[in-house]
Amino acid sequence: MLLVLSAAFGPSIVDSVAAVLAGPEAYAANGSSPSLWENIVRQVIGLCLLCYVLFRQEPSLKSIGLDFKISDVPISIVLTIVGYLSYWALLNLLMISYYKSVGSPPVPWRGAGGVLGPTFSWAAAFMVIVNPVFEELIVKAYVITEVTALTGSILLASLASVLLQDTYHLYQGWLNAAALTGLSLVTALYYAKFRRVLPVILCHFYFDAVAFWIIVKGYY
User: Is the alpha carbon torsion for 178, 198, 128, 143 positive or negative?
Assistant: First the structure.
């Protein structure tokens, strides 16, 4: 498990820590962030490594809940709504708390345009497709399955998954990364309970696809 996570997310965690130390805006400006194509290649390699590890343990990806049912689609929509409301509520709570303690509003995250780019690109289109599969198969399905098997605790496994996902999103700034806990916890608890990963992947895809559509329309 540590090998899979290190190969899949080690560079992202290093990038996120560097973003926190330098500041997200300064970090993006100095060109240290990896390109979209580099991210896509790294994610495909990470998925291949996961498939190899699972092949050595089980004959198929069904061992972590990757198969299709019609009910996955409406469930994914419910997850998206509940997850977004959780994210929105936590984000606003953190922003209000920050303002009351500091006296000024926090610096907002630049949005998905800072990750996918300000205009349409094929790299961004591929990223929207690959990234949900990459993240949710490894961070949700694989991590929760393995940590549950090691500890016997669904709650601990869910929290480990959420913490990992928050860590490599720190490049968005601590405020947005912390707010993502709401969304991540909803999908983590769903997977831990039902062991169905496709609704979680679809939920992630909806968020990325909407962000990409906004970029294409020029609203960023």
Answer: positive
